[in-house]
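Bug report (template v2)

What were you trying to do?
Predict the complex of my protein with pyridoxal-5'-phosphate.

What happened?
Run completed; filing so the output is reviewed.

Input:
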Amino acid sequence: MMTAMPDSLPEDYTLLSAHSWADIDLSAVQHNFRRARELAPASRTCAVVKANAYGHGAPRIATALQEVMRPDDLFAVVTLREALSLRQYIADRPILLMRGPLDANEMATVLQQGFYWVLHSDWQLGLLQQAWQKGLRPAGGKLHVWLKTNTGMSRLGMPMPEVPTIWQQIRDLDAGAELVLMSHLACADDMEESLTPRQLQNFKTLAQDLGLTDGHHCTLAASAGILNWPQTHFGIVRPGIMLYGASPMIGREGPDEGLQPVMNLKSRLIAVNQVKAGDTVGYGATFTAPQDMQIGVIGIGYGDGYPRHAPTGTPVVIHARDQAWDATLAGRVSMDMLTVDLTGIPALAGDEVLLWGQAWGASLPADRIARLCHTIAYELFCQITARVEYRYR
Ligand SMILES: *Cc1c(COP(=O)(O)O)cnc(C)c1O
């Protein structure tokens, strides 16, 4: 726990033990999950908790999600290590490996553990056939394979014309296999983009060819599809970023979508300094004080995962005298700290600062910081480092 700072600290007092923390609101992740379900009520929900739940801590996030999931909802991760780790917290629910097993050993483990997996390349069918010949069978008795096809993104996925044959070859091994047709949208974050309707059309055509007329065993939509393209929902949706309260849509922020921030990234002012007109602040001397002013130093930097590319002018919220004050970065972010313009703010060393999220009645969506850094909230969340303490509530 943090100790409260006395009110009467000298203005240049530096806290020796200042650190940064990510305050994680588990009720917000549950709210966001319900929001995804409300938007796609007829679909099963496959909650994406890859990359340590987008930097939020997969064990606690998955446990909180599990409380609000339906019996047939599932989790998705990318690597086998992530799946094995998640299995320690999630005993019964299916876990999908979105990249599938990558070699014979992984295939053996995937079958042994009964993980669901994505088959995106024909060589993975070879791995499955070899395992089958060795007598390996899936735990639970039934194969669960999601066949990923390329409908226009041209990243992972088999060419559409190859899918019917592979589909049949899996059925030949295991007549009772539960097969799902999967694809991924490249531009669903942009409502003007014509690739999405084309991908949807390709996907529907293939689903028809496979006899999947009710769309039950089809999955296309991630968060952007869930939020904005209802025609892409089909039987299973795969929300990721929206669960963490950020928007996947260009120019929009989590609160615009009815989402709540899950990560509230906080730190403290560790020094408040006076600078004179003409003085420069920070590495590269990129900021010059236009007049005598107060500069606050906050104990967070890119060594904690705060983006180094955040420019002068990027907002933060300072909690001083029981009020939330808007302040902005002045000068470059360094590894362990950053500097802000405190003009007109009665802040003292020890005061708490919000870098993104919400606190003290103020809201500062991670999407906004990301846009100023020419990136997306996904990356900001994933970049939080081990130096940051996680506090769950
Ligand atoms: C990461 C991922 C998702 C989730 O995407 P969001 O944009 O975060 O909702 C869904 N499907 C696949 C295949 C993914 O890799």
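What did the reviewer find?
The chain has eleven helices and 20 strands. The longest strand covers residues 263-275.
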